[in-house]
Amino acid sequence: MLKIGITGGIGVGKTVVSRMFALLGIPVYDSDARAKWVMRHDEALRQELVAAFGQETFTEAGELNRSYVASIVFNNPERLEQLNGLVHPHVRQDFESWVKAQEGKPYVLKEAALMYESEAWRQMDQIITVYAPLDVRLKRLLQRDTHRTEEDIRAIIAKQLSEEEKMARAAHVVYNDDQRLVIPQVLTLHAQFLSHGNN
User: Fold this and answer.
1) How far apart are CA 103 and CA 20, in angstroms?
2) Where does ATP bind (predicted)?
């Protein structure tokens, strides 16, 4: 089964593109949502996180204390690397289990913002990068994330791998730039992946 990764920086519209594939009947693994699930439900990982970041990592109700963890890692690259180093291997295992459950599907998609940073690209056969120029991303994010300032958004973007590098490393680019229609691009890729699976 073909495993296709889909990535791109904040505000490019990865999730919109992933949903289009989902509407075509393709299973989509949402790395961000699954990472949250794994952090809550994988007992071994929970113990590793508490050992690394303290009891406050989880609330009394057993939920991940996101604001506490964010306060530790946001401006501390070493601690962020430590967090990712604990979480990403468990998410990779979860993805492999999930893929086995999708038997009979022509291909699957894994949506991940940190496709390269987490080494998740190594599990993929091909990568799609979704691209949008910075001004379009800023406009979208200021409308969507009303709690964030432009400065906040630029700080997040500055910490992510550059779009140029993501595009250079990807087999396919979907342009979600408000200039080109996205659906025809998705349908073209879908047809390619189906024909690849039938060869």
Assistant:
1) 21
2) 11-16
13 annotated to bind ligand: yes
Q: How far apart are CA 36 and CA 66, in angstroms?
A: 10
Would you state the CATH architecture of domain 32-101? 3-Layer(aba) Sandwich (3.40)
Q: Would the annotation count 54 as a binding residue?
A: no
Cβ within 8 Å of residue 73, ≥6 positions away: 79, 80, 82, 83
Kindly report, residue by residue over 111-150, the tens digit of the pLDDT.
Answer: 999 899 888 999 999 999 999 999 999 999 999 999 999 9
The structural domains of the chain, with segments of one domain joined by +, span 1-27+106-199, 32-101
- Report whether 3 belongs to an annotated binding site: no
Write out the two tokens for 142: 């200021």
SS3 assignment, position 5: strand
Dist. CA 9–CA 20, nearest whole Å: 18
- Helix-helix angle 43-53:66-73, to 10 degrees: 50
Contacts of residue 88, defined as CB under 8 A and 6 or more positions apart, other chains included, come to: 114, 118, 119, 120
| Contact indicator for 109, 26 with CB cutoff of 8 Å | yes
Q: Domain 1-27+106-199 adopts which CATH fold?
A: Rossmann fold (3.40.50)
